[in-house]
């Protein structure tokens, strides 16, 4: 039996914020803030290790209701405070590698607020492919980030 080849894709998502770039960057850098907007599997119970620094490692492990374990391992390659984050991550399901990604997140001043550009380049492994789902999940997380940083949310 031959192993299917890897498949490659990418996507870019932009979001605008009513807060300055430093506030958006901080929502990525602070582990408690990150959990509020980025964890799409909170209902399944998760384990996290967070080390936000160049060459720092992050682990996010979720046990799904059906007993399968999903593990995301992340390595930060480049962090420029308030400007840029570059990281790579892989996703495994029950130790089976599904994908490997390189992500660049950039923060720009935009009037009185910020514009964030999220670029992800993916390699899907061994026949796995879920681009539409991955894009949707990433968009939903970034939408939660916009809500978290909106002036009305922060005032409550």
UniProtKB/TrEMBL annotation:
Recorded superkingdom: Bacteria
Alphabetical list of SUPFAM superfamilies matching this protein: Bet v1-like
Entry-linked CDD domains: SRPBCC_CalC_Aha1-like_7
InterPro entries, per the entry: ASHA1/2-like_C, START-like_dom_sf
Domain Activator of Hsp90 ATPase homologue 1/2-like C-terminal: 19-146
Coiled coil: none
Entry similarity comment: Belongs to the AHA1 family.
Protein name: ATPase
């Amino acid at each position: 039996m031959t192993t299917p080849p890897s498949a490659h894709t990418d996507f870019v998502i932009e979001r605008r914020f009513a807060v300055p770039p430093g506030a958006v960057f901080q929502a990525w850098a602070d582990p408690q803030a990150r959990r509020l907007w980025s964890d799409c599997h909170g209902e399944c119970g998760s384990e996290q290790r967070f080390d936000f620094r160049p060459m720092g490692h992050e682990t996010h492990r979720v046990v799904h209701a059906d007993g399968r374990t999903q593990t995301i391992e992340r390595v930060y390659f480049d962090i420029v405070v308030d400007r840029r984050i570059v990281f790579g991550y892989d996703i495994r399901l029950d130790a089976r590698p599904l994908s490997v990604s390189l992500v660049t997140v950039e923060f720009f001043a935009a009037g009185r607020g910020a514009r964030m550009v999220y670029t992800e380049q993916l390699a899907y492994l061994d026949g796995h492919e879920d681009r539409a789902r991955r894009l949707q999940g990433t968009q939903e997380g970034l939408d939660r980030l916009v809500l978290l940083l909106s002036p009305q949310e922060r005032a409550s």
